Structures are given as structure tokens and as C-alpha cells.
């Protein structure tokens, strides 16, 4: 640590020095091209020296940070392993490796070293481990876990002796922080499979709520960075998160493990960049809010049917068929004009395009068309030099442009070794060339960008005439939703108004990028998609095209499919994703154990979904969920307030009042803000902080709270009543770590609270003989 401290101090000083004197060390001269090249080289060299120092400093600082952490908590586990025919090896595991003073023997092994797998994968007894030299067989003699804080052993357990995992009990029983924690000390065997998978191109993780999918994903990134150090860097890994707040929630895990953070983004952010400014892009949460609140809207049924259909594999198939057809006919083009003169008409371009060999992919044919057009433009440009308007334009050149033109021509002349244009005619001619060139520049640029293809029309065409898609769909043996004519009307009118609904965004981009060619990102090696159940078939197909060389880790829970399109299982892209990769390159891991919530909470929440009995609660005790009935909204707010105060007094650090929608959240927030320090979470909220929050259901996805208060468990339409809202209700309830309290106004409860589920929560103030609330079904 002393050496590193010295090193960081030295490099810091050097960096400050370089920055301060940067411009003294470089020679900058733009007189001519030789000088410019020299200036550039000198600047570049100086910048490289600086960035090398910065890199050294960053690495030393990170190493130092890791050592400080090791000083406070050097290891969390020990295994004694006896390889067959050898002596017993005692191996300590920590967040990083540490060697002895001679830098020879390992005192502590990094948790990601091959030997560490033994700790995660086996109880004491026969065990084996894969090493670069092959499989090593032997016996695990001891497996010991430690809790070390501030350099002191606080507790230790030998597993296999004690019942239940004491360390896990301790870790999970704690109040939560504002950020997710690393779980390296207690990674479970199934999770370890996810973390260390190196073979699959597609790793699919289906895991119950709270089973550690996100945790495993983040430890996996740390593992990959360790395993492929030198060839894989943090910026070649992208995590797709559900929203910006989630990004903040998970952003501390990797630095905690001494690694740089991967790139984090949301799919929406990606779409927005790709879409540019030509449309107003709807946010997925705005779409969901519409789905949850606008049932009385006259176009609601059609919009919802459209959302579902546009997320389906049927629509993917329809579009593939359509793109096939566009290879033969139907692509719309735009006229190429110059000063109001039609140079090449859309029809001519169409004819040229469709006369090209149809075996050539559309984007490549378009590039051939562009070349052809550029050739025509060149000819036209030559002819334009003789035209009268050029003289006029030269006359009208303003002073600045004139000077600019003059200088640019002077440079050209020097290059072409021509005389300077002292003579008037020659000057006129050269300025004429300049003027014409400037006029053609934007046209050429547009041709290169393939602006002669009407990409928007290509998508709109699917909706202009309802019969068109019907015949396409019929030709592949599929049918369209009943509401198709209305879906068409809504879609075309939105697109005319330059509004891009969320359900259209990905199919639209997919169509246009298939036509003009995908701008792929070839440097990214791994993408991790969290909450993958909420992606559509299209979104996965699109991601695959965008990141052609990337391996994919998709983590999700079908029971938490909450997006507007997720009315049926077939509609989740999760299933469609598997079809995108060959089976032999796909690995599926199922996680059934749930770690987040106490046993009573998991026992209750598993009753809310079909097949919930398969979820295994981790054996952690706690209070049973409660249900509180209020007579009216005013009383509800009073009761909520009182419960929040109680929970805060008990030491709960993160308390969430989870509402169904943003509209409901705003009401709750208004009512609660006066008496407590409440924060309202909206879709733009970018940070996750401890404290009391009011949050709409869909934004609570992926995160967790010490205590959850469900704002509306009644059967009113503001609550969760429809079958399609079952998963939303489940998602909401599974956010609770230690306490779950349900509230309802009136005496009716949502249908999911009836049946078996009723045995798993208490209604304070009632005895079992009292009349229990009515369940409407
Ligand atoms: N092996 C483990 N050791 C300690 N804690 C764990 C372990 N696995 C999961 N947890 C804890 O369980 C909680 C839930 O984990 P996580 O958020 O990763 O689950 P998830 O499957 O992504 O949940 P969801 O789908 O409900 O959002 C977290 O607090 C996490 O720290």
C-alpha cells in the first residue's frame, strides 16, 4: 500500500504538471500543411503521454482501493482441499488475490480464480474442479465462511455442520442500502453457473422474483473481466436496464469489486439515439401508463390489440415476408432534384433499383443505386458550369464567402501548381466551380445517406391499406387481429403527426435498418439484458443485429411480465429469443430459490401466481404480510402515514408506498408529503436513495425495499383487478425484503387475495372468526 500510495501521488503530480504545461510542450503552427502535420504529431504525442500517466494512475488507485478493502476484510471463505494423492491445500478466498511479500505464494485467492469454484459448488466431501491443466479430483475437507469487518473476525461458520446458511441469514436479514451489494461471499451453486458460463452464445436465465438474477449478472461481468483480462474491457460489455433509476441502483457493485463499470443503458435510450429527431418517441412507461389508465378511451381496445400484435412473432414473420417482397417490388423512392429541376425521378430510381440482380441484398443494391446517382450528379455538375445562374451566384457571393472561396481556391491552385488567378476570367471560372460545387455538395451527401429511399413510407405502407397486410399475413398462414383496420388508422395517423408509439419504434427501426443496412456495433462482446421478460420478439431480433459479435445473457421472470404487450406467454420476446440462437449454443438456467423476501412474504407471494409453489423461500423468518382496510381515502392516507412512521422507527431504511400508476402515485404523494420526508419517483428519476418513496408499480421493477406498502389492494378499478394485472400485483408484492403491508379502501379485495392466498396474510384487528373482507372474482 505504501508503494502504491507513493506511486499514485507521483503520477498525480506528473499529470497536474503535464496539464499545466501542456501548451508549452507542443509547437502549434497552422501556416502550411507540413507545419500542420508537425503540430498534429506534437499534440498527439503530448496527449498520449498524458493519457498513459492517467491510465497508470487509475490502475494504481484501483489497486490501492482494493488493498484497503482487503485490509478491512481480507477474505470471506476458506476451503481445505485434498487433491487425490496429494496433501491438503488451505485456500482463502477474498474479493481479490493477495500474494506474500516475495510475490510468490498466494495468501488469498480471488473469488474468480478456478479453485474458488470448489467453494461455491460443493459441500464438504468429494469434489472436482476444472483448471487450465484439466479436471482435478479430490476431497473438500473443510468449507468455512467468515465475516470480517475492520480487520476483525466477527463470526465464522463451518458449513455442512450448521443447519441453514448462517451467513446468508445474516446478509439477507440486514436493512437495505440505497445500492445493490455484491454477493461474492455467498454465491449459490446455480448462480455460479450463470456467473462462470463461458461457452454459450445465449445464456437464458429464468428465475423467480428475488432469486438473484441481477446479482448474478453483475458478478458475471466481474468474472468475465477477470477471466479475460487483457482482451475484454468494461466498455465492451453493455447492460440493458429497465430504467435510469435501476442503473443507479446497480452501479456500485462492480466498483465495490474493484472493477470498472460496464456500459449501462436502457433500450429506450438506444431507440432514441437510433431514431434521431424525426419523431417524438413515446416512453415505454408512458405506454404502460396508457394501458393501465385509459380503458375508457375510445381507441383503447384497438391500441392494446396493436401493442400485443406488434410485439408478437407473427408480426416479425409478417415483416420478414414484407422485406422479402420489397426485394422484388414496392420500395418507394424520392425524386432527386437540383434547384427545382428534376434530375432523376423516383420512378427512374425504382426502375434502376429493380433492374439490379435481385439476389443482391437490398442495402447493397441501394449502394449501387447511390453510385449510379453520384455519377449522374457529376455529369450534371459539369454541365452546370456553363449556366447563367452561376454568374449571378458569383456576383451575389457575400464578402465572407468570397474570401473563403478565394482562399480555398488558392490552396487548390498551389496543390495543382497553377498560377494564382490574377486574371479576371480565370478567377470567374474558378469561383463558378466553387459555387456549383457548393450547390451539389448537400445533394451528394443526401444521396450517400440514401435519402432517395422513402424509408418512412416503407413502414407506413403496411398500414395504409388494411388489405395489404392481410394478404401478406395470409400468404404465410397467419392471421391479423380483429381490430386490424383500426390499428392501421391509429398507426398512420400517429406517424403522420410524427409521433412514434413505443410499440412501433422497434419494428420501424428494424424495417428501415434492414433496408438501408444495419449500423452494427462490432466491438461489444457481451450484452446483458435484465428484466428480459419485458422485451418483445422484435427487440431481441433488433439487438442481435445491432451487436452481431456479442454474446447475450438474458435474465427474466415470466411471472413479472408487466409490459402492455405481455398478455400471453407467447408474446414475450423471451421465448422468441431462444429461437434466434442455435440450441447447442444456448444454455438455460432456472433459479427457483428466492432470497430477497422473508419466508412468510414468499409463502404469500407464491400464492399469487400459477405454479408459485415451485418457488422455494430461503428460510428467513419475519412478520406475516398484513392487510389493512380503510373506510375511505382520507383514512387510507392516515393509516399509511402511521404505518410509515412505525416502520421508520423500527429502523427500516428503505420504505416504498407502491402505487399502480403514475396518476395514483401523484395522489398518494400529495397526501403523504406533508407529514413525512417522502420522495416521488417518476420515470425520469435517475437516482436510487434510501428513505421513503412513493413509486408507480412498473418503476419498482428490479429494485427492492425493506418495507413495501401496497397502496391499493382493493377491487376498485384503480387497483389490480384484471387477470392481466396479476403479474403486476405479484411484481409489486415481491419488492419487499422484510415487511409487506397491503391497504385497501372499502370492503372488497382484488381477486388475487382470495383463495389460498388469504391464509398467508393477517388482517390486524380481526380475529379469524370475524367476517373477513369480500373477495370479488
Ligand atoms: N447468493 C446470494 N447471497 C446473498 N444475497 C443474495 C444472493 N442471491 C440473491 N441475493 C439477494 O437477494 C436479493 C434479490 O436479488 P436480485 O435483485 O439479484 O434478484 P432478481 O432475481 O434480479 O429479482 P427480481 O426479478 O425480483 O427483480 C438482493 O438483495 C440480493 O442481494
What does this structure look like?
The protein has 777 residues and is an alpha/beta fold. Helix content is 44%, strand content 18%. The strands form seven sheets. Strands 1, 2, 3, 4, 5, 6 and 7 form a seven-stranded mixed sheet that branches. The protein has a six-stranded parallel sheet with strand order 10-9-15-16-8-17. A six-stranded parallel sheet has the order 20-25-24-21-23-22. Residues 168, 171-172, 181, 183, 186-188, 191, 207, 209-215, 557, 560, 595-596, 702, 704, 734 line the site of adenosine-5'-triphosphate (ATP).
Show the helix and strand layout.
Layout: H1 2-20, H2 22-25, H3 33-72, E1 77-83, E2 88-94, E3 98-99, E4 106-110, H4 117-121, E5 125-131, E6 134-149, E7 152-158, H5 166-173, H6 189-195, E8 202-207, H7 213-227, E9 237-241, H8 244-250, H9 253-256, E10 263-266, H10 267-275, E11 280-281, H11 284-293, H12 300-310, H13 313-326, E12 336-338, E13 341-344, H14 346-355, H15 362-384, H16 388-395, H17 399-415, H18 424-448, H19 455-464, H20 466-475, H21 484-496, E14 499-500, H22 502-516, E15 526-530, H23 537-546, E16 551-556, H24 573-579, E17 586-591, E18 593-594, H25 599-605, E19 616-617, E20 626-630, H26 633-649, E21 654-659, H27 662-672, E22 678-680, E23 691-696, E24 705-710, H28 726-733, E25 736-745, E26 748-749, E27 774-775
Helix pairs in contact: 1-3, 6-7, 12-21, 15-18, 16-18, 19-21, 19-22, 22-23, 23-24
Bound molecules: adenosine-5'-triphosphate (ATP).
